[in-house]
Amino acid sequence: MIDFIWLIIALPLLAAVVLHFVGRFLGEPLSGWLASAAIGASFVFALVAALPFIDGGAEASTVLLWEWMPAIGASLEIQWDPLSALMTLVVTGVGFLIHVFAIGYMHGDERFARFFTNLNLFAASMLTLVLAGNYAMLFLGWELVGLCSYLLIGFWFTRPSASAAAKKAFVVNRIGDFGFMIALMLVFTSFGTLSYAGVFERAPEVLTTGTATAIGLLLLVGAAGKSAQVPLYVWLPDAMEGPTPVSALIHAATMVTAGVYVIARSAAIFDLAPAASTTVATVGAITALWAATIALAQRDIKKVLAYSTVSQLGYMFLAVGSTAYVAGIFHLMTHAFFKALLFLGAGAVIHAMNDEQDMHKMGGLFKRMPVTAITMGIATLAIAGIPPLAGFWSKDEILASSFARGGWFSVLFVVGLITALLTAFYMTRQWVLVFLGEPRWDEGVEPHRAPRVMGVPLIILAGLSVVGGLVNTPFRYTLEHYLEPVFEGISLQHPPEGIGMFLILAGLSVFAGLVGAAAAFLTYRRPAGSWKRFEEGLQPLWGVWEDAYGVDDIYGRTLVAPGKRVADVSAFGVDLPVIDGAVNGIAGLFIGLGQRLRPLQTGYVRNYAALLFAGAIVVVAWLLAGGL
Amino acid sequence: MVDPGLYMTVAAVLFFIGALGMLTRRNALVMFMCIELMLNAVNLTLISAGRAMNDLNGQVAVFFILVVAAAEVVVGLAIIVAIFRRRSTASVDELNEMRG
Fold it and tell me: Mind telling me how many Å the CA of B93 is from chain A's nearest CA?
């Protein structure tokens, strides 16, 4: 079994290659089903391979596929342990449902097959990332998912906004990757290898606190880029230009969680650097609150979800920064369920509304699309942290863990609690604006039910959003036991002991969630004029939130504009006159020389012959005169 | 035995006639004949020098030159005939496409 573990990556990769060459002949919907089958097969395979871990007692193993650069510990090798198995199951499981949904969503697109090529390539890249057995291969997957993200955000590249968003995502991620790469170089100079086995076992004896902190902070830079944390989150809201299944798969469920995964995977390093961990948690808490406030005021249905994703990723960073790695991974998993569901539901709504994304122009859709409304309602309650849905258990564990850590983390706990309230508010606002109230549709819009191929994934994800949290409750820490071997020898932060403390903390977060949800429900259930006045009443704060604090504008003026000026100077001030000038000058020199020598070529044979004789006479004379 | 200097003189005269013709005539065919004249003047020096120094290498070299010259004449005449057919003139002054 374990010898064939590479098939998990190979199947989607193979499907991507096949679709690349013959996809256009397969057409619609066959190419979509082929892509779905490939990733579905990966899921089944991963599930079977993961069974020993679920039963408990199985050893983690590393499979060497190919020795690439053994001198630096960079080979193609697969790490199969409970953590990578869980990530693989989330990626392939949620990925499979999104693939199936996309068959319906991408119906009629002229580049249908190409979409699934890219989607499968992404799945293979993401699996490379999570299954990597060393930092080099992880980095390979890390860059490949970035590339696929770029390709898929810009899938409709004829729209200028889509290609601009793709470029932005790529460039902002580059900034993060810069830090990530320096972190890897530091790891290599410290350990002489990049393999997990070599690094984690010797970390305590090799690393000083200073080096560990440096590596941790640089890893955070990379993770902040990929996982859209302050201050590098700006690319994610723009990434909503991509097709909605892409937003669900890459920009909610899988790729953006890579940063959380890397930090959890590097727990052995962060264990030695408490300062770096605290920074991670602080960045996470700030991001959670920051993005939640922006999400409050968005009108675009996908922008709400985008900022919500940034905010929830902030929760995950808060968890892994509090060294509650299990809670972070737990929230990663439940978030994948309900956020993928929310995105897919939003996709169904956008589809039904003829590509309308403005929530002010929706409303009253409950009767037209009950399945979407109910499943999205479940996801909304789940993300709002209402028990016993999935989001409640994972969010509560994060908050309880940061509370139990105490000190500075108590402040972060309060920030998280406020964020929980805001989350419930904006998610309920979204649901009510879309599904309840009077229809505010544009002329000629006739919403229709989603086809079954889109409905079934919604229902399955809704089921997972309900029960997904039960894998790790204070009554039965199944996930914690499952992940125990991965975090062996690392001090983990647990929620406070005892059911009483759990009830108090859970009560607090449920109270926050209920208050937020109820406030939004009561505000937005009323006619449009009423809640518009409510939003007006919150000016100018509301406008600042709607404008996302103007961060894009600030970055544009402080970073992008000077960058462009530097590019201008080097292009028109240095490259053109100096570099090109030197090249053209040399060419001009020889042109001039040639012009002067031209008259020698008279075209008369006798002239050439005369010169020839003259030359011969000179040579003979020289020889006679005793030359040589 | 004749003085080799006489042969050398004859060769020099022949070479000079060929060179002069080369520089003054315009007809490609005549120029070609002048080239042959110069070539054979050189052959004459080789033979006479070989004889004077009692060395067969001079004559061997001339045999080689004659064979190569035969091939060269074939190619050269073919070119001249081709030019004449195409332009109905063999004047080299009109063949000045390569002028700088």
Answer: 6
A57 alpha-carbon distance from chain centroid: 33
Q: Which residues of B touch A (CB under 8 A)?
A: 19, 22-24, 31, 92-93, 95-100
Strand residues in A379-435 grouped as ranges (E): none
Test B99 with A601 for CB contact under 8 angstroms. yes
Phi/psi for A473 (5° steps) reads -120, 160
The average confidence (pLDDT) of chain A is: 91
pLDDT score for B77 = 93
Partner-chain residue, chosen from A599, A605, A610, that has the shortest CB–CB distance to B92: A605
Nearest CA in chain B to A594: B100
Task: Compare all CA atoms of chain B with the CA of A609 and give the residue at the minimum distance.
Answer: B23
Chain A residue set in contact with B, beta carbons under 8 Å: 597-606, 609-610, 613
Strands (E), A332-458: none
Reduced 3-state DSSP string for A434-487: HHCCCCCCCCCCCCCCCCHHHHHHHHHHHHHHHHHHHHEECCEEHHHHHHHHHH
- pLDDT at B1 > cutoff 70: no
Do A613 and B19 count as a contact with CB atoms less than 8 A apart?
yes
Beta partners for residue A66, in sequence order: A76
Q: What is the pLDDT of residue A481?
A: 85
User: Is A213 exposed, middle or buried, given 0-12, 13-18 or 19+ CB atoms closer than 10 A?
Assistant: buried
Please, are residues B35 and B18 in contact by the beta-carbon 8 Å criterion? yes
Summarised one tens digit per residue, pLDDT across range A229-258 is 988 999 999 999 999 999 999 988 899 999
Contact between A603 and B23 using a beta-carbon 8 Å cutoff: no
Mean per-residue pLDDT for A33-50?
94
Q: Which two tokens mark A134?
A: 């060393």
Return the closest-CA partner of residue A609 out of B72, B24, B36. B24
Residues of B in contact with A601 (CB under 8 A): 98-100
- In the DSSP assignment, the letter for residue A72 is G
> Is B19 in Cβ contact with A600 (below 8 Å)?
no
Q: What is the pLDDT of residues A148-183, one digit of tens each?
A: 999 999 999 999 999 999 999 999 999 999 999 999
Please answer whether residues B92 and A605 qualify as being in contact, where contact means their C-beta atoms are separated by less than 8 angstroms: yes
Q: What is the pLDDT of residues B12-50, one digit of tens each?
A: 999 999 999 988 888 889 999 999 999 999 999 999 999
pLDDT at B89 over 90: no
pTM (2 d.p.): 0.81
Q: Which residue has the tokens 């079954």?
A: A452
